[in-house]
Amino acid sequence: MQISLLTLITAFFRRIILLSLVAFLCLSGISIFTSLPVNAGTEAELRLIPQDYQPSAEEKIERAYELSGATGRLEEAKQELTNSNENFDPTKKANVKTIKAQAKGSEENLIEKAKSLVEKVTQ
């Protein structure tokens, strides 16, 4: 009698532990999907910026450098190589090759500019 009662109690505790672990996993999974992105602006912040606001080239470059140095250099290359009359196509993958391809009308490409910069620095 005592042995059967002991096995019933241990089985009961095992089920409780198993159910609590499953509940913990479910709750932790729900918390992952309900978390908001950290860098999202609030609605009040978004209302401060007018819909028709177009930042200047310097503002775009400054904002890109705030993200990272590589993003800033990419934005500078985009600003230098694209025609001012023609906008950069954001649907294409943004790297130096696509920026160069979109700016076929420019006099010199990025590689030539890099060579001239290296020559200036070494002199």
Could you walk me through the main structural features you see in this protein, from its secondary elements to its overall organization?
With 123 residues, the protein is an all-alpha fold. The chain folds into 2 domains: 1-33; 56-122, no CATH class. It is 67% helix and 0% strand. The chain contains 6 helices and no strands. Helix 3 (57-67) runs antiparallel to helix 4 and helix 4 packs parallel to helix 5 (96-102). It is elongated, with a radius of gyration of 29 Å. The N and C termini lie far apart (96 Å). The relative contact order is 0.05.
Q: How far apart are the first and last residues' alpha carbons, in Å? A: 96 Å
The number of helical segments is 6
The ordered string of helix (H) and strand (E) elements is HHHHHH
Structural class: mainly alpha
The biggest beta sheet reads:
none
Coarse shape: elongated
Helix content: 55-70%
Strands, total number: 0
**Mean of the pLDDT scores?**
76
- Binned strand content: under 5%
Structural domain count: 2
Low-confidence stretches: none
Give the radius of gyration: 29 Å
